[in-house]
């Protein structure tokens, strides 16, 4: 019968925080894991633990400087956002044409379609109160909006004191048509020129959006043999011979990433300890994916060059992202976000084989850390409540709670409690303890080693 073998360190006070860089405010519980069964590590993840090599730790959220909430995404419910599609298209275009995209030009193009012309729609307007001072009319949001509109139009006229005094938009300042409307009109004109009737497609937008929503797999499937570049992803077991063949390439990439992105020097031993050595016991059976449960590297090969690596743990109910590093020369491809989409798609494929393996764990979500907020941009994401250990949808209500205070009981139902809360001391009696190359139950261990105190 397989066992997980660990050495518990206990609680450490006033350690260095890797997020806010404080030298004496991080408080964690931790232990060293010699070996871990995948099921045991899955249960630890669902209790707020996380691994770094063989080191397993859990922040004491209620007192630590940066509360860390375990975050996961349901891959079967995930929907691509506009920004996600843009990144996928950018990669496809680069693979097809071999031309480095102009990110600034893309931003300018986006901004040109976001100019506000509909005055009553306050939520869509760009209101910058700091640019206008000394005007009491700023207390009225409509007046503030009209001032901004006058600035956009570069006209010298002053803002009106009431909305009714504004000229009729339909008479003197016609509303500019949106790009989508212009495309529909051009398409309609082509059909009419051929003597055919054309019915606009956007009449029932909600239904059409659901049926025509492209998936990650459809985007990455848009590859052609004539592409200038070929991108190939390989998932390799960290204990396999195939992995050993590319070990030096992986380390060189990691060293470059740490030096350029984080301004840190990492040795090969650091790399092995942090991202290669794993306590997870490789498990392959009827309930596992073809490659089994365990630790893997998802390698991104551009032609014959390794440009990125995602370190993953495949567990009974999830794919857990441990770390990701990439070649800084390719940062124009937004590889961080691109990799999360590819890892989500990988999870979706595994869930087709093992339906229960449908979650993508992204590590910790730290609301007051700007570098971590991107994790919350994935739809169908959930945070682990640090008190009830139940999952709560990451929506605006939860974000507002975390804006008020960085530590929160996320499950607001006072009747919900931790179903696995430790209550009785005899719950430990059956736990096995390894001592001097022998193991026994915790109850026996206490009786043998501490009986003299009684």
What does this structure look like?
By secondary structure, this protein is of the alpha+beta class. It has 14 helices and 14 strands. Strands 6-7-8-9-10-5-11-12 form an eight-stranded mixed beta sheet, sandwiched between helices. Strands 1-2-4-3 form a four-stranded antiparallel beta sheet. β9, α12 and β10 form a beta-alpha-beta unit. The protein starts with a strand and ends with a helix.
Order of helices and strands: EEHEEEHHHHHHHEHHHEEEHEEEHEEH
Strand content: 15-25%
Q: Give the overall form.
A: globular
The counted number of beta strands is 14
Radius of gyration: 28 Å
Which structural category fits the helices and strands?
alpha+beta
The rounded distance between the terminal residues' Cα atoms is 35 Å
Model regions low in confidence, pLDDT < 50 over at least 5 residues: 111-173, 205-211
Q: Helical stretch count?
A: 14
Strand count, sense and barrel status of the largest sheet are: 8 strands, mixed
Average residue pLDDT? 81
With strands numbered from the N-terminus, the spatial order across the biggest sheet is 6-7-8-9-10-5-11-12
């Amino acid at each position: 019968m397989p066992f997980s073998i660990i050495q518990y360190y206990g609680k450490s006070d006033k350690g260095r925080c890797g997020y806010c860089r404080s030298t004496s405010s991080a408080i964690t519980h931790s232990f060293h894991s010699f070996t871990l069964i995948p099921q045991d590590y899955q249960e630890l993840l669902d209790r707020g633990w996380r691994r770094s090599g063989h080191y397993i730790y859990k922040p004491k959220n209620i007192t630590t400087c940066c509360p860390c909430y375990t975050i996961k995404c349901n891959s079967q419910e995930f929907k691509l956002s506009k920004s996600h599609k843009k990144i996928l298209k950018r990669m496809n275009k680069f693979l097809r044409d071999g031309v480095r995209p102009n990110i600034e030009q893309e931003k300018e193009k986006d901004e040109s379609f976001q100019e506000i012309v509909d005055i009553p729609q306050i939520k869509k307007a760009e209101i910058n109160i700091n640019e206008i001072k000394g005007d009491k009319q700023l207390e009225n949001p409509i007046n503030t909006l009209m001032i901004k509109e006058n600035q956009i139009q570069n006209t010298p006229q002053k803002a009106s004191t009431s909305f009714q005094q504004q000229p009729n938009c339909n008479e003197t300042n016609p509303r500019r048509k949106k790009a989508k409307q212009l495309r529909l009109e051009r398409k309609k004109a082509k059909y009419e020129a051929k003597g055919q009737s054309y019915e606009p497609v956007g009449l029932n937008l909600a239904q059409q959006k659901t049926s025509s929503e492209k998936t990650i797999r459809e985007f990455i499937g848009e590859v052609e043999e004539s592409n200038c570049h070929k991108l190939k992803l390989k998932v390799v077991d960290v204990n396999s011979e195939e992995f050993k063949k590319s070990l030096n390439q992986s380390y060189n990439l990691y060293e470059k990433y740490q030096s350029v992105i984080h301004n840190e020097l990492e040795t090969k031993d650091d790399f092995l300890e942090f991202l290669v050595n794993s306590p997870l016991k490789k498990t392959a059976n009827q309930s596992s994916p073809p490659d089994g449960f365990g630790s893997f590297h998802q390698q991104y090969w551009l032609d014959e060059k390794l440009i990125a690596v995602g370190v993953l743990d495949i567990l009974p109910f999830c794919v857990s992202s441990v770390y990701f590093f990439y070649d800084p020369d390719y940062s124009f491809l937004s590889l961080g976000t691109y990799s999360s989409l590819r890892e989500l798609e990988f999870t979706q494929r595994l869930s087709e084989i093992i339906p229960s393996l449908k979650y993508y764990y992204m590590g910790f979500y730290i609301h007051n850390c700007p570098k971590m907020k991107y994790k919350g941009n994935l739809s169908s994401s959930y945070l682990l409540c640090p008190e009830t250990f139940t999952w709560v949808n990451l929506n605006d209500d939860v974000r507002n709670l975390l804006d008020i205070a960085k530590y929160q009981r996320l499950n607001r139902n006072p009747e919900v409690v931790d179903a696995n809360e430790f209550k009785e001391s005899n719950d430990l009696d059956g736990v096995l303890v390894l001592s001097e190359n022998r193991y026994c139950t915790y109850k026996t261990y206490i009786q043998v080693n501490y009986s003299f105190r009684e």
